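task queued by scheduler; priority normal; single chain, no ligands, no partner chains; default sampling; output format set to structure tokens
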Amino acid sequence: MNRIVIRLGIFLLALIASPAILVEASSHMQEPDTIRTVLLGAEPDYPPYCLLDENGKPVGFAVDLFRAAAEAVHLNVKVKLGPWVSLKKDLAEGAIEALPIVGRTPEREVLYDFTIPYIQLHGAIFVRRDNQDIHSLADLKNKEILVMKGDVADEFVRRERISDRIYTTTTFDEAFTKLAAGEGDAVITQRIIGLKIMERLNLQTVVPLKAPLPEFRQEFCFAVQKGNEALLAQLNEGLSIVMANGTYKAIHQKWFGPAFQEHFTKADLLKVVLWIFVPLLVVLSLLWIVLLRKEVGKRTRHLNEEIIEHKKTWRVLQEQQSRLKESEEQIRLLLNSTAEGIYGTDTRGNCTFINQSALKALGYEDRSQVIGRNMHKLIHHTKTDGSYYETAACDIRRAFSSGTGIHNEDDVFWRADGSCFPTEFFSYPIHKNEEIVGLVVTFWDITERKRSERELLALKANLEIEVAQRTAELEEKVQKLDKSQRALLYMVEDLNQVSKEVNEERRKLELSNKELDAFTYSVSHDLRAPLRAINGYSDFLLEDYADKLDDEGKRFLRVIQNNASKMDRLITDMLNLSRISRAEMRMSKVDMGKVAKSIFQELASRKEQEQFVLEISAMPEIACDYSLIKQVWQNLIGNALKYSEKSGVKKIEIGSWEEGGEQVFFIRDYGAGFNPKYQDKLFGVFQRLHTEKEFKGTGVGLAIVQRIVSRHGGQVWAKSELQEGATFYFSLNGA
């Protein structure tokens, strides 16, 4: 299980780092002349994470790690010192930009945004050495608990209602000093922090309880002000870099050593020796005793850690049981919402799951009619020629032996009523612990595609017959011509030859178009198939391994699914762009003012329609292709709404004028605008002048606009300045 978690963590860390690198690449396009400085808040007395060295310089594990991550993405760091309560308020109000070590809690997620976690700490209860009443968390009821004001421990004891007698201090040094002096019954904080403070203050009368405190396990991150997505992305990238290049390990080694060890008393050590090693003295030499003590001690520590983790996991599983049921229901709804038929089998070919689309296509009303039955015998038992299909020769089950996906685009499945339908399917093996445990099959009913192919073949045959008939009629007429018409006959023969050449070129063009359509179909399916596999396996991982993943792991899987969905949209935009060049244009008179107004009403939400001022000047009717010109307005108006989202002035102006026999149309907004330095890249495919974090999009919309306007014989251009809005123009020649 530990290996699976480690490998999954490395994989998700790479996915997070990739989009961050893209953000850096796009930000370099507008990189300032000077390196930006980040104002970091830090405490002077929170060892070993934040403290002052002998020269008064802010240092510590968290401060050094923040500086290294910032340096990796070319950021300077300036540190502001202060107490924790003030620093929390400063970050929420924007007086500082980041904090180096902040526990991620529900209360704090309302105020801040967090990077990926870089360390996990366990809590502990500290009491006076002579205390005989407190042995566990339950014993703190009605006891006086000391915590630092605003710390995660403060939030924890209040959220869990550990006691009604909670007292806060400005620092944990103060809390431990008061505990040692007899004020209060216990201090709650992270174990490592408490031990460091006890060592620094030389507190001999305070000890941590041996009983673990798994309820107070906390992940620590860098925190930024809510909504500061640009800085958050840079810090995530910096963390990814220092974790990958060994810097993180070196900083951890500097502040914690090879491994942090808690202090054991001589009495505890003697008990361990007497319990484990005395029986071995009879048969082993002194050398073996020393070696075995080291090995047993190591394994004992590992076993204790695993026991604690297992107990924690069991409690988490019990608490999240109802949430898992809700997640399973959501996954089932998503599976049933797909248009493709999907079912899975075990290694014997028996159905383990099936979605609603598959049930409908196969003519079944309920999953109970299919689950547990052999799918080959149920739907794949007979070939298209009526002969019996042997199970051993089944293309679907061939994925077991090959260990890879199988694709068949010309097969047949049988319905519950005994009828059959042509189908295309993909069969993929399901792997678990490096073994194949089943198959997942995705299929489509291609009846309509087959019918279209037959109609095309029939049309081709009829056309050939008609051409042959016309040719025979022409030859008959030629034979009736007299000698005086021989010259005309030769001319007709030449025309026939030209006609044949034209027909041949037309045939080649039709063949090219068919090949292009086939390529487009292949792109649509072959590029989307891996995306379906990513989404499918992500769903399986969430369903089958949910008990082995924490919330952060599940969030990472949702990031994978979101990026797969983004790639699917990108493929759709690519296909739309390719179709525009081949689409047949149907010219008609179009009222441009009505089209622009209707597009705005379609795209703008109710809130945007209330916020935006839309001014459309009188515009003439013009001859153009209605469906194509509608896409132009959709992309331009959609961009105006999107890039004005964060602007204080929400206004869109649309109008036109006549110039040089052409009609020039414009749309103006007062949004983010763009740097005119990069205007030559504006209408290129996948060229974007803003990052994905700032504004969503694929970078294809303006390329579509330029291609449509060019097909109408016009031109498109734009004018803008950063944060001063943008105006897009296009010209059309039509009356």
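post-processing summary
- The two ends are 72 Å apart (CA to CA).
- Residues 1-32, 259-269, 271-280 have pLDDT under 50 and may be disordered.
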